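Weekly modeling sync, notes
Attendees: S.R. (lead), two postdocs, one rotation student

Agenda item 3: backlog of single-chain predictions. S.R. asked that every request posted to the team notebook include the full sequence so nobody has to chase files. The rotation student volunteered to paste the first one in as an example of the format we agreed on. Action items at the bottom.

Example entry:
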Amino acid sequence: METKSPTSLRGVHSRVFSEFARYRVVLPNGPFAAIFVPLRIFYSGGMILQRRIGDLSATAVGLGCMPLSNGRMVDHREQALQTIHAALDQGITLLDTANIYAPSWNAIGHNEALVAEALRTYTGHAPLTDVLVTTKGGITRSEGEQWGRDSSPQALRRACEDSLRALDVSCIDLYQHHRHDPAMTYIDQVRALQLLKDEGLVRRIGLSNVTEAELDLAIGELGSASDGGVISVQNELSPRYRADLDVLARCEREGIAFLPWSPLGGATHAKDVAPRFAAFADVADAVGATPQEVTLAWLLRMSSVMIPIPGATRPETITSIVRSMTLELTDEQFATLQATPPEHTSMYPEDQPRSPLR
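Predicted structure, as returned to the notebook:
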């Protein structure tokens, strides 16, 4: 749901943002920033839509940081830091990472450390106390790029402690279970997550790549968002892949934030939205936006619990991501996009059998 998030601004009467309370006001640089706030509210698009993640408020679109640790970006660390700084400057308050987002098996924690460095070196106006960093554990990488799963209490604790060090924090605000471990029952994996919270290593729990049956089980064990239990689900959803709409519907009923990963079809396919899905290009032409911006606006319109986390590797892309939150689709345009047939091909298809529930 969209919520009120007033920003404290010296020299501006509280009435200035009473009508705009569900938006975060982005300050321009300079010592007289507060003077220009009303101008930005009315003329410069300096308002950012907020949505709920449990007891927290975050921007309706976050930044997926995974691409910043992939391929060529490893040799462009300064550009990666500038991209995160640009997101903070433009008001984005959700940064998504994971321990395995790394260029190689022996660099686990690379992306988490990058996010930590970006926050540590940030000198802009954005209040970092408003920034939510979410990370994930449960997938393993070992020598020779051997991928696996381990959600045992001992393994999740080790992964979580490594993430704490990489992120340079004493407690992780939102820790999400990355993928199920077929060697364990799902109920035991959920309980292992709860142990991390009980021990004070994490404040909040989320799930990723989950089925509706697994989500239902986790809610029964941990509680839902209103109970301080499962507050987020991070599953794939994009024009090309829409297989988990039942999970989204369950999240809507529970008020659980749904964070679609690869919302544009994946980092290497984002440019293909228009040629693969002509309707998105047509709507983009009609509203004067890019097909990628229309895609994010479509997802936001689809559900009030939706918080897409597109990736970016250039500061310039952040402007486009933020602009997507200002687009308004007509009912007809939204219906046209909804009617486009998906390809049902996942960017990272599941290659393991599902865990027994109990």
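Discussion: group reviewed the output briefly. The longest strand covers residues 47-53.
Action items: rotation student to repeat for the remaining queue; S.R. to check formatting next week.
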